[in-house]
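ok so I'm stuck.
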Amino acid sequence: MNIGLSDHFTFKKLFRFTLPTVAMTVFSSVYIIIDGFFVSNFAGSTAFAAVNIVMPVLMILSSAGFMVGTGGSALVAMTLGRGENKKANEIFSLLVYFLIAIGAVLDVIGYIFIEDIVIKLGATPEMLPFCLQYARISLISLIPYMLQNLFQSFMITAERPTLGFIITLIAGGANIGLDAFLVGGLRLGVSGAATATVISEFLGGVIPLIYFFSRNKTRLRLGLTHFYLKSILRACLNGSSELMGYIAASIVDMLYNFQLMNYSGEAGVASYGVLMYFFVLAEGFFMGYSMGVAPVIGYDHGADDRRELTNVFKKSIIIICICSVVITALAELGAPLFAGIFVGYDESIYHMTVNAFRIYSVSFLLMGINLFGSSFFTALNNGIISAVISFARTLVFEVLCILFLPLILGINGIWSSVIFAECGAFILTLTCLILFRKRYGYNTPTGDKNT
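replied:
not stuck anymore, here's the structure
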């Protein structure tokens, strides 16, 4: 039985509706992790560090897909909530074509400047060939990867989150299998890992493109459109928080790598790479839930159903808080196991990673609320507040902590920077949620006894 955006959501129904999206984003994280596992164990720590140096650059180039996807899906969901189905399809089609054009431009820019960028980020002469090899192959699939990120959001708006998960399974399964064959079997190193990623991203981007171009049973379909400049600007502004979030996170990753190269060399960068793999798992869960529930929030806002908006908001806060505690506990207990999987072959890097893991993991207690808060305002089509939370969380709080805490605490100051940053972001997020509760009506008594 399909669950519609206009339904009343109990805890059970909310779990069922968001679970495919959570599974989709977590599984996406898993196949990124497996990519790193094969590179680290079959190509060595230098190649592993090189991939971690270049990855933030690729994320910045692809971040427009998250911007148009999250901002655009919220706008389309609100338009559907108002009953304007034809216009919703035209906006959807326009945003897809717009993103393809942006991707082509960014692809050319990436090819031209990638070598200069990675050198400035601190890549050593030994790391540089691996950086360039991985980046130049990966850029082949930049447009499909951007489309994959966009369609993850629109699959939910189209009320087909399970199909989105199936497509992610296909793409991720291909990546894992090709990693095992090309990197583990043929020992092609970073070029094999990049090739596996390219093929999987083509699958993840092209399959939903074909689906939305063909006749389907959803309310969304690609076709002829009109040039709604206002809709493009609104989608971009609304999704600017996600754009800034990914750009800021990538810049922060670069800064972490730069600081770690100064304090501990390649070993520190390798340790940070392991941390990031668990981080993307935790972030994948929280982002998956936030993406999954966002079209419901956008629909209720468009339909001016304040009781249901309040119901979904309160239940979401409870779910996020419980899961934050569970994920933090798993990270603390699993630190030795996770470190051993990736860098168990080097005792010094292993011990550094376990120590870093146990410090860094404390931040997961607050990360979920901060991510949900930013996504919540995006779903309400308030991109400015969403962007403020996202921008402050990473590019302000975390950058300041990374720059100054190591002067006091040494390398442990680098590992603990994210804790202080999430605390600052939590205070800001809580303040925004309180200030805007009357404007959007998510403080309305629900009268809901059916939970």
